[in-house]
Amino acid sequence: MTKRSPFRYFKTSPEIIRLAVMMYIRFPLSLRNVEELLHERGIDICHETVRFCWHRFGPMFASEIRKRRVEGLRSSHWRWHLDEMFVKISGERHYLWRAVDHEGEVLESFVTKKREKKAALKFLKKSLKRHGSADEFVTDRLRSYGAALCDLSIRERQQTGRWMNNRAENSHLPFRRRERAMLRFRSLRTLQKFASVHASVSNHFNEERCLSSRSLFKANRAAALAEWRGLCAA
User: Fold this and answer.
1) Cα separation of 234 and 230, whole Å?
2) pLDDT tier at 184, thresholds 50, 70, 90
3) Full set of structural domains in the chain with CATH
4) Which of 195, 205, 206, 202 has the alpha carbon at shortest distance from 84?
5) Nearest 5°: phi and psi at 77?
6) What local confidence, expressed as pLDDT, does residue 186 receive?
7) Which of 73, 97, 202, 220 has the largest count of CB atoms under 10 Å?
8) Does the structure show a pLDDT above 80 at 58?
9) pTM (2 decimals)?
10) How far is CA 46 from CA 52, 133, 224, in A?
């Protein structure tokens, strides 16, 4: 039985939809910025179409990327960096918990209203269920991490220290730039949805440019783009 195309009822071509979604999620652009850039390429679509496309197809693309990475056994089990960042939703402070591996790839993103043991435990359970366990968990000195790891009987794997969690701190920067371009978020559901999609897309195009030669970087970038153009193909 052939797989039905998710683009079958749309007048816009799948190539344009993938391009619009990639530009909006990957780069710190507004909806109208994406509309203008596509217009320069001769593609006439409204910014509301870009909004609809990322809402409709962004989670679908992210899910397929995660599926391919899990099948390729790309998840790291050596060292995870756990950290939380403050995000305001309609003026109210929320917390975005993030798990990052030693290469800087975001493994999990989880939004809560409080920064406590219950929230940390829920975040850790979700991460462990999807990616398995790790040999080391690098955290800051927030006591919620220690209490949650103690409940999971893996407290001895926790590592804390000055500058040890810089990998997680640096991974926040692309999301912060994206948050400013979006003029912040207006609902917890939208934040959770976008954080998950943004993490998958960032992982897909993350090439660690400083660690490879120019020729290797170009080959990996071309491979990532080719794989992106084949997402959700019938």
Assistant:
1) 9
2) confident
3) 10-74 (no CATH), 79-205 (3.30.420.10)
4) 195
5) -120, 15
6) 85
7) 97
8) yes
9) 0.87
10) 10, 44, 27
